[in-house]
Amino acid sequence: MTDPEPVKEEISEEAAGPVEETMDVPVTTTSDEAGSPAVAVPDTASEKKRKNMLIMIGVVVVIIVAAIGAFLFFSGPVAEKGDTVAIYYNESFENGTLYLSAMNTTYPPLIFIIGNSSVIPGVQDAVIGMSPGEIKTVNIPYTAAYGAYDPGLVQTVNRTGPVAQMIFGNMTLKPGHYTVRYKTTNTVSIMTILNVTNTTLTLDTNNPLVGYNLTFTIQLANLTKANTAAAV
Description:
Radius of gyration: 48 Å
Order of helices and strands: HHEEEHEEHEEEEE
Helix content: 10-25%
Strand content: 25-35%
Low-confidence stretches: 11-17, 27-31
Number of helices: 4
Protein backbone atom coordinates (compact mmCIF):
# COMPACT_ATOMS: atom_id res chain seq x y z
CA MET A 1 0.00 0.00 0.00
CA THR A 2 1.47 3.24 -0.94
CA ASP A 3 1.35 6.62 0.89
CA PRO A 4 -1.03 9.09 -0.52
CA GLU A 5 0.66 11.99 -2.49
CA PRO A 6 0.49 15.34 -0.74
CA VAL A 7 -2.12 17.62 -2.05
CA LYS A 8 -0.78 20.70 -3.69
CA GLU A 9 -2.81 23.71 -2.74
CA GLU A 10 -3.12 26.16 -5.55
CA ILE A 11 -3.97 29.70 -4.76
CA SER A 12 -5.39 31.78 -7.47
CA GLU A 13 -4.29 35.31 -8.19
CA GLU A 14 -7.68 36.57 -7.17
CA ALA A 15 -7.34 35.01 -3.74
CA ALA A 16 -3.80 36.22 -3.16
CA GLY A 17 -4.54 39.84 -3.99
CA PRO A 18 -2.54 42.17 -6.24
CA VAL A 19 1.19 41.74 -6.47
CA GLU A 20 3.30 44.87 -5.94
CA GLU A 21 6.05 45.40 -8.41
CA THR A 22 9.43 46.37 -7.02
CA MET A 23 12.04 48.52 -8.79
CA ASP A 24 15.73 48.79 -8.22
CA VAL A 25 16.28 52.50 -7.34
CA PRO A 26 19.88 53.71 -7.37
CA VAL A 27 20.90 55.22 -4.00
CA THR A 28 23.72 57.74 -3.53
CA THR A 29 25.48 57.23 -0.27
CA THR A 30 27.37 59.87 1.63
CA SER A 31 29.29 57.45 3.73
CA ASP A 32 32.43 55.53 3.14
CA GLU A 33 32.75 51.78 3.25
CA ALA A 34 33.16 51.80 7.01
CA GLY A 35 29.91 53.68 7.44
CA SER A 36 31.48 56.99 8.49
CA PRO A 37 30.05 60.23 7.07
CA ALA A 38 31.91 61.53 4.04
CA VAL A 39 33.95 64.75 4.58
CA ALA A 40 34.57 67.32 1.83
CA VAL A 41 38.28 67.62 1.09
CA PRO A 42 39.44 71.18 0.11
CA ASP A 43 41.64 71.92 -2.85
CA THR A 44 44.97 71.92 -1.04
CA ALA A 45 46.86 73.56 -3.94
CA SER A 46 44.51 76.57 -4.07
CA GLU A 47 44.52 76.93 -0.29
CA LYS A 48 48.31 76.88 -0.18
CA LYS A 49 48.51 79.47 -2.96
CA ARG A 50 46.10 81.77 -1.11
CA LYS A 51 48.07 81.48 2.13
CA ASN A 52 51.33 82.25 0.33
CA MET A 53 49.74 85.31 -1.27
CA LEU A 54 48.56 86.61 2.13
CA ILE A 55 52.04 86.06 3.57
CA MET A 56 53.63 87.97 0.70
CA ILE A 57 51.22 90.90 1.13
CA GLY A 58 51.98 91.01 4.85
CA VAL A 59 55.73 91.04 4.22
CA VAL A 60 55.41 93.88 1.69
CA VAL A 61 53.32 95.95 4.12
CA VAL A 62 55.87 95.43 6.90
CA ILE A 63 58.74 96.46 4.59
CA ILE A 64 56.92 99.63 3.48
CA VAL A 65 56.10 100.64 7.06
CA ALA A 66 59.67 99.99 8.16
CA ALA A 67 61.08 102.02 5.27
CA ILE A 68 58.83 104.98 6.06
CA GLY A 69 59.76 104.81 9.73
CA ALA A 70 63.47 104.65 8.94
CA PHE A 71 63.21 107.60 6.56
CA LEU A 72 61.43 109.74 9.15
CA PHE A 73 63.89 108.71 11.87
CA PHE A 74 67.11 109.32 9.94
CA SER A 75 66.05 112.31 7.83
CA GLY A 76 65.76 114.61 10.85
CA PRO A 77 63.72 117.81 11.07
CA VAL A 78 62.74 119.68 7.93
CA ALA A 79 61.71 123.30 7.46
CA GLU A 80 58.01 124.06 7.47
CA LYS A 81 55.84 127.14 7.39
CA GLY A 82 56.18 129.05 10.66
CA ASP A 83 59.76 127.86 11.33
CA THR A 84 62.67 130.27 11.66
CA VAL A 85 65.49 129.54 9.22
CA ALA A 86 68.95 130.90 8.51
CA ILE A 87 70.26 130.51 4.96
CA TYR A 88 73.30 131.25 2.85
CA TYR A 89 72.64 131.77 -0.84
CA ASN A 90 73.89 132.74 -4.28
CA GLU A 91 71.63 134.76 -6.54
CA SER A 92 72.11 134.55 -10.32
CA PHE A 93 70.35 135.52 -13.51
CA GLU A 94 68.91 132.65 -15.54
CA ASN A 95 71.84 132.90 -17.99
CA GLY A 96 74.20 131.98 -15.14
CA THR A 97 75.61 135.44 -14.42
CA LEU A 98 76.17 135.79 -10.67
CA TYR A 99 74.42 138.79 -9.15
CA LEU A 100 75.06 138.27 -5.43
CA SER A 101 77.17 135.78 -3.51
CA ALA A 102 76.37 135.18 0.14
CA MET A 103 77.18 131.49 0.22
CA ASN A 104 79.85 131.49 2.90
CA THR A 105 80.34 132.39 6.52
CA THR A 106 82.05 135.68 5.64
CA TYR A 107 78.59 137.20 5.73
CA PRO A 108 75.94 136.56 8.36
CA PRO A 109 73.14 134.27 7.13
CA LEU A 110 69.77 135.60 6.10
CA ILE A 111 67.32 134.81 8.91
CA PHE A 112 63.56 134.83 8.44
CA ILE A 113 60.32 133.12 9.41
CA ILE A 114 58.81 131.05 6.61
CA GLY A 115 55.46 132.48 5.60
CA ASN A 116 55.89 135.68 7.60
CA SER A 117 58.71 137.54 5.94
CA SER A 118 59.60 140.12 3.32
CA VAL A 119 61.89 137.54 1.68
CA ILE A 120 60.72 136.79 -1.85
CA PRO A 121 58.09 134.00 -2.01
CA GLY A 122 60.17 131.77 -4.29
CA VAL A 123 62.95 131.52 -1.72
CA GLN A 124 60.55 130.86 1.14
CA ASP A 125 58.86 128.09 -0.83
CA ALA A 126 62.22 126.58 -1.79
CA VAL A 127 63.35 126.30 1.83
CA ILE A 128 60.27 124.30 2.86
CA GLY A 129 61.23 120.64 3.18
CA MET A 130 64.97 121.29 3.53
CA SER A 131 67.08 119.89 6.38
CA PRO A 132 69.95 121.70 8.12
CA GLY A 133 73.08 121.53 5.96
CA GLU A 134 71.15 120.71 2.79
CA ILE A 135 71.94 122.66 -0.39
CA LYS A 136 69.38 123.21 -3.13
CA THR A 137 69.37 125.05 -6.46
CA VAL A 138 66.04 126.38 -7.71
CA ASN A 139 64.86 128.44 -10.67
CA ILE A 140 62.45 131.16 -9.57
CA PRO A 141 60.25 133.02 -12.09
CA TYR A 142 60.01 136.78 -11.72
CA THR A 143 56.41 136.44 -10.50
CA ALA A 144 57.73 134.62 -7.39
CA ALA A 145 60.80 136.86 -7.13
CA TYR A 146 60.68 140.64 -7.35
CA GLY A 147 57.63 140.91 -9.58
CA ALA A 148 57.06 143.11 -12.60
CA TYR A 149 58.22 146.68 -13.02
CA ASP A 150 55.89 149.25 -11.39
CA PRO A 151 56.04 152.78 -12.86
CA GLY A 152 54.22 154.06 -9.81
CA LEU A 153 57.37 153.52 -7.74
CA VAL A 154 59.19 156.31 -9.61
CA GLN A 155 58.94 159.66 -7.84
CA THR A 156 60.64 163.05 -7.76
CA VAL A 157 61.34 164.50 -4.32
CA ASN A 158 62.82 167.71 -2.96
CA ARG A 159 66.53 167.21 -2.54
CA THR A 160 66.57 168.93 0.84
CA GLY A 161 63.15 167.68 1.91
CA PRO A 162 62.43 165.14 4.66
CA VAL A 163 62.27 162.14 2.31
CA ALA A 164 65.70 162.77 0.79
CA GLN A 165 67.19 163.63 4.17
CA MET A 166 65.78 160.50 5.80
CA ILE A 167 67.12 158.28 3.03
CA PHE A 168 70.40 159.86 2.06
CA GLY A 169 71.28 162.46 4.70
CA ASN A 170 74.08 164.67 3.49
CA MET A 171 75.56 162.17 1.02
CA THR A 172 76.91 163.41 -2.27
CA LEU A 173 74.48 161.92 -4.73
CA LYS A 174 74.67 160.94 -8.37
CA PRO A 175 72.61 158.62 -10.59
CA GLY A 176 73.03 154.93 -9.80
CA HIS A 177 71.94 152.13 -7.46
CA TYR A 178 71.94 152.64 -3.70
CA THR A 179 71.42 150.23 -0.84
CA VAL A 180 69.59 151.98 1.95
CA ARG A 181 69.29 150.78 5.53
CA TYR A 182 66.49 152.24 7.63
CA LYS A 183 67.71 152.53 11.21
CA THR A 184 64.26 152.73 12.74
CA THR A 185 63.12 149.40 11.28
CA ASN A 186 66.54 147.80 10.64
CA THR A 187 65.46 146.96 7.12
CA VAL A 188 67.28 147.31 3.81
CA SER A 189 66.02 148.35 0.39
CA ILE A 190 67.68 148.99 -2.95
CA MET A 191 66.71 151.99 -4.99
CA THR A 192 67.98 153.79 -8.05
CA ILE A 193 68.60 157.51 -8.44
CA LEU A 194 67.60 158.29 -11.99
CA ASN A 195 68.35 162.00 -11.97
CA VAL A 196 69.90 164.62 -9.68
CA THR A 197 69.39 168.39 -9.89
CA ASN A 198 70.24 171.18 -7.50
CA THR A 199 66.79 170.93 -5.98
CA THR A 200 65.33 167.52 -6.77
CA LEU A 201 66.01 163.79 -6.86
CA THR A 202 64.21 161.36 -9.16
CA LEU A 203 64.05 158.03 -7.40
CA ASP A 204 63.09 154.60 -8.68
CA THR A 205 62.28 152.32 -5.73
CA ASN A 206 61.68 149.27 -7.90
CA ASN A 207 64.13 146.54 -7.03
CA PRO A 208 66.82 146.33 -9.74
CA LEU A 209 65.86 142.67 -10.24
CA VAL A 210 62.21 143.26 -11.13
CA GLY A 211 61.13 141.36 -14.22
CA TYR A 212 64.02 138.89 -14.04
CA ASN A 213 63.79 135.11 -13.69
CA LEU A 214 66.44 134.15 -11.16
CA THR A 215 68.39 131.10 -10.00
CA PHE A 216 69.11 130.67 -6.28
CA THR A 217 71.50 128.21 -4.70
CA ILE A 218 70.41 127.93 -1.06
CA GLN A 219 72.07 126.29 1.93
CA LEU A 220 70.00 125.85 5.07
CA ALA A 221 72.44 126.81 7.83
CA ASN A 222 70.11 126.62 10.79
CA LEU A 223 66.53 125.63 11.55
CA THR A 224 64.44 126.54 14.58
CA LYS A 225 61.16 124.70 14.65
CA ALA A 226 58.18 126.74 15.81
CA ASN A 227 58.12 126.68 19.63
CA THR A 228 61.19 124.44 19.86
CA ALA A 229 64.94 124.79 20.28
CA ALA A 230 67.24 125.28 17.30
CA ALA A 231 68.13 122.26 15.16
CA VAL A 232 71.65 122.59 13.77
